[in-house]
Amino acid sequence: MSTYVPVTREEEQAMLEACGLRSPEDLYGDVPASVRLRKPLNIPEGMAEMQVRREIEHLAAKNTVFPHVFRGAGAYRHLIPAIVDTVTGHESFRTAYTPYQAEISQGVLQSIFEFQTDICELTGLDAANASVYDGACAAAEACEMCREKKRSRILVSESVDPKVLSVIRTYAFGRDAVVDLVPLRNGVTDPDALILLLQPDVSCLVIQQPNYFGCLEDLAPLTEAVHASGARAIVHCNPIAMAVLKTPGECGADIAVGEGQPLGIPLSWGGPYLGFMAAAAKLMRRLPGRIVGETVDTDGRRAFVLTLHAREQHIRREKASSNICSNEALCAARAAAYLAAMGPEGLRQVALQCVSKAHYLQKALEQAGLHPVFPDQPFFHEFVTECPDSEKLLSALRAEGILGGLPLAGNRMLWCATEMNTRDKMDRVAAIVREVTAS
Amino acid sequence: MKLIFEKGAPGRRTDYLGPCDVPVIELEGALREKPLRLPEVSEVELDRHYSALARHTHGVNDGFYPLGSCTMKYNPALNEVAASLPGFTDVHPLQEPETVEGCREVCDRLESLLCEITGMDAMTLQPAAGAHGEFTGLLLIKAYHRAMGHTNRTKILVPDSAHGTNPASASMAGFEVVSIASDENGFVDLEALKAAAGEDTAGLMLTNPNTVGLFDPQILEITRIVHEAGGLNYYDGANLNAIMGIARPGDMGFDVVHLNLHKTFSTPHGGGGPGSGPSGCRAFLAPFLPGRNTPESIGNVRSFGGNFLVAVRALTYLMTIGREGIPEAAMHAVLNANYMRVRLADLFPMAFDRICMHEFVMTLEKLKEETGVSPPPWRRRSVLSPPGMSSSGTRRRRPSPSARARRRRPAPGLRSRRSSASPVREARR
What we know:
- The complex is a heterodimer.
- Chain A is built from 13 helices and 16 strands.
- Chain A is 37% helix and 15% strand.
- By secondary structure, chain A is of the alpha/beta class.
- Chain A has a seven-stranded mixed beta sheet with strand order 2-10-9-8-7-3-4, with helices on both faces. Chain A has a three-stranded antiparallel beta sheet with strand order 13-16-15, with helices on one face.
- Chain A has three domains: 9-61, no CATH class; 68-78 and 343-438, Aspartate Aminotransferase, domain 1; 82-336, Type I PLP-dependent aspartate aminotransferase-like (Major domain) (Aspartate Aminotransferase, domain 2), CATH 3.40.640.10.
- Chain B is of the alpha/beta class.
- Chain B folds into two domains: 77-318, Aspartate Aminotransferase, domain 2; 326-419, Aspartate Aminotransferase, domain 1 (Alpha-Beta Complex).
- Chain B contains twelve helices and nine strands.
- The radius of gyration of chain B is 24 Å and the shape is globular.
- The interface between A and B is large, with 191 and 190 residues.
């Protein structure tokens, strides 16, 4: 068995004596005898590093790692430049605590400050927080930011990722808020249906850009209708797409949220990921969690501190804007490092390659017989096709190390292409589609 | 220090992608008008920038971190190797189940280990942090009372010493918070608890050992009072490190728990996250857990299954230290805290004169009387962060088991800081 306890038996005895105790048992005098464990826990004995490593590697090897991924639906495979791992792998970042104490945390604080600045740039809004757990939680927290005494109804477009919707519903259950869905027309939010649903008790609308089906929403008319009714507009956006698309800020959104995983964070079977949140200045004080601000120290030098504490749980307790305490700081550092490595032109190139390859794939699949479901809608890097026998197609693709699209209800499939997919493999996917259809 | 935005030069960049191998398509229509202002730096500038930021950051692996209110323990190197295996990092969360057997086994094994350690019957790894686990656990309590038709059970009892997340989580779950007074020893005031518990009680949230570092010896009485009133008992696992393998929340009468993998189970704090806050419960609450296909499930508290790579690290730690290592780590954390308490008692009178668990509270009044130095500057010089400092000038300290190697240093270090106490530079807020 290995242990990380650095004390020898002799040292332990000396420490006990210094405390006036005879045995370690004496430390637990306050624990009633009836709740003390009388036998060891029923779990395996510890192991040395060599054995643990062998077993963990064996577990990892049981998974299939697909060299070619055409599936997105909320988690995207992008290039992660090697430098991102290098710069965020510093032990000091990895093992630091939440930067409450500014004097020993300037590095972490500055990295979060730079991340917040990046998020404001991407979303076109005024203030961002230090991150929340993931994109779905960011959307749910944003709904909470919009709640007013007489407005407790949340509208969510049917084109929002169902996982995001599910988390919004769970948070709404906590606050006893009602969630209604806004129907779609041809793959995007129906503005006429929205106007009918915008009753005086509606607090906010959640829309996704690009939406779950990959289509680009025409945001401005939707946010205008929302504002006309006195409610607020939340846009759940893909950060890579924000390099080229009109920002939520430019489209009139009050709050922008999203999943930051595409920004240099590996797929990792779903986590840790990164929820980002940005808001217009008037809502800044409602942002949940940590916010890092710039200030000067007593010598007038630039310094960073956690700011606007007054909204937070450790001060406000049950009146806090949220209970969030830990966030995803190291993932935020990864995102900031990724964005700095890519720069504005690099991120634009990632976005353009995503668009170009997704369009190439869509055409190739259409020619192979899988017709797009929303052929007239502009899209970013995802799209939906008809797909009569998804199981058969996916297993044929899997045999060649290809993870195909995500099967959706109604014999449809949601495909994704990023800069990582090569023309050769896209041609091969189309060929496999032909083979499967022909057989 | 300069911001990354102030370094580099316009147009400076590294091309990581190379040319596009399909015809380039420019989107038309709704394109951003405002130019995107991101850093424009070379790779070496980026590398040096983060090296400089790292030098301005103090982590557990840089030195002693005697923080109260949060367990800070050594983050083993092997955990990082495990969490960076491509078989874990390069797996899409929506892959078909038969292609992710290894991931599922990691979660199953960790869940059953955590059930055994806490005495719970079921566990979910979905919550991403402690406060998220609290919220999840409270929603279980809410969903349970709803299902039982207990519409009047709208109040959660929270001791006044509780961490701020407890009342905030209760409020997010739609409960009214009732604060329960502590007695002069820092324990729950049983009379106050009896008076508050009743037909409107949904449950009690308790941290034990509590936030002043004491194990409440009346624990069985406390959970019995709440159960008899028809409420459920919620265990905040923030301080489990002191008693893991020694006693289990399930045996103390708790129905729901949350754990912090980034405290008790050695995964790094990452400068504020990612953490992981598994929620566990007794069998009768299991159908309400998130991420399950049961009609009673509260749904999902985040996308996908949770902070998976954090779970990999925690499993690696538990496989390494195993059955004997768990109580050993707990006992040494408690021994370290008591050793420091005894070594410092002559200079800093203790708030509670008794054996503590993993942390203790010392008072700084004598320091101020004798040196004129007030607590904040002293704290800044001692690497002690604000949540561990109460407004009354007392100080919580918590050495973790791995702090032991330096046990001779911290106490003399604090002694010398006391004797040389003087104001230091403070950041203006």
